[in-house]
Amino acid sequence: MTTCSVPNPYKPTKSADPSQPDPEETMSRDQIEALQTERLNWTLHYAYENVPAYKELFDEHGVHPDEFKELEDLAKFPYTDKEFLRKSYPFKSFATPMSEIRRIHASSGTTGQPTVVAYTEDDLETWGTLVARCFRMSGVKPGDKVHNVYGYGLFTGGLGAHYGAERLGCAVIPMSGGQTDKQVQLIQDFQPEIILSTPTYLLTIADGFRKHGIDPRETSLKHAVLGAEPWTEEMRHEIERTFDITACDIYGLSEVMGPGVAGESVETKDGSHIWEDHFRPEIIDPFDDRVLDTGEPGELIFTSLTKQALPIIRYRTHDLTRLLPGSVRPGHRRMGRITGRSDDMIILRGVNLFPSQIEELALQVPTLSPHFTLEITRPKRMDQMTIHIERREEATLEEAQEGGKKLVHEIKTKIGSSASINVVEPGSLERSSGKLRRIYDHRDK
Ligand code: DLL
């Protein structure tokens, strides 16, 4: 293993009884902060001494890991982003020799070079443990059958969720995304209690059930653990009603680990607890980079505390949310729902808006479905947004068009943007088997 002048204060331990919380899960806030201080001290030295790109970045910024004495000192260190990792493509950001690496994943993003991430054996152990924590909090029990729809492959969703569920003691059905008819058949035949999916693809699976004349409320499913894309409270209600299940959030990103950075409790459904024994979150103002207080909305930043293969320092996620005090796990703070990504923000004639705001309003109109896309154009140098939205099966086209007018009115009064609406037939918009693309911005073309 790579050396570091500061001894690593962490060695993963397998919890004896996976149905019970890990000891770190129930630590007090003071205990967590003491752990974070110790682990940050190690991480900063470890990254500096083992990844040339970090040494270069810290030196350029005029800061040395020895200057870290207490949590507030983290603010002295520079931010990193996807570009920082891309410059080290493919393996130069790894802090360990390849002989220590056991897994490599990559996130493609929408454009350009993929970002490569890696895990040592200990990192994989930690990942499984944290995903298992999330699932347990979301109502999954050892012995449950888990239908895993997250994509297997380079995407961290499939394998990340898979090993977490195995760790918890579940029987995993590694279905992956797509093949909706087969999803329906296997859920019918194998009778899983749990489904893991992106929220939008779960709606497509619901349509698949209906197509086969099956009411989605009649399946064996009891709990869904959903993530990998932004979703709203309205979407939670829609999914819970559609399947007669509970739906909890799971959050994560490849660069920080993958799914399982934060997870939600089925009892409180009040946002995801970030596992702060492994990650130190911060919220910053995305425009002037100032660190904001707990409760203030801004961009989420993460520093890893225990990662070996790919330590990550003050990584800018571009995810917009806020930190809240812990509830069922008081030592760990929660994150509010992600309202959007700073790079997904649409600026329409000077007004900022996110697809999640449209989702929230659209789901309040009973004749409109949650399936929509946003098309942005600029005819005659004026921004124009068209919402293409499917009517609900049970509504006529006329009723849905009436609903569309109501939606346009709500968008105007609540968000301040003008939009036109195009109500289309059920099933006519493109579906995704993973993360859904909502925005089609043609303004630059
Ligand atoms: O999407 C990891 C993951 C897989 C999380 C399965 C949850 C479930 P990436 O492909 O690197 O990793 O994408 C990370 O997806 O920065 C967010 O913008 C978005 N995202 C992930 N989870 C949520 C969530 C995985 N629960 C990016 N709510 C992140 C909102 C989410 N956005």
From TrEMBL:
AMP-dependent ligase C-terminal domain sequence ranges: 350-443
Please name the Pfam families in this protein's record.
AMP-binding, AMP-binding_C_2
What keyword terms does UniProt attach to this protein?
Answer: Ligase, Nucleotide-binding
**Kind of enzyme, top EC level?**
ligase
Q: Name one GO molecular function term.
A: ligase activity
Q: Which domain of life is it from?
A: Bacteria
Q: Which residues form the AMP-dependent synthetase/ligase domain?
A: 100-302
Where is the stretch described as Disordered?
1-28
Question: Would I find Nucleotide-binding among this entry's keywords?
Answer: yes
Q: Which InterPro entries match?
A: Adenylate-forming_Reductase, AMP-bd_C_sf, AMP-dep_Lig_C, AMP-dep_synth/lig_dom, ANL_N_sf, PA_CoA_ligase
Q: In which pathway does it act?
A: Aromatic compound metabolism; phenylacetate degradation
Reactions it catalyzes = 2-phenylacetate + ATP + CoA = phenylacetyl-CoA + AMP + diphosphate
Q: Which Gene3D superfamilies match?
A: 3.30.300.30, N-terminal domain of ligase-like
Q: Which CDD domains does this one have?
A: PaaK
Job of this protein? Catalyzes the activation of phenylacetic acid (PA) to phenylacetyl-CoA (PA-CoA).
**What family does the entry list?**
Belongs to the phenylacetyl-CoA ligase family.
Q: Any idea what this protein is called?
A: Phenylacetate-coenzyme A ligase
From the UniProt record, report the name of the gene that encodes this protein.
paaF
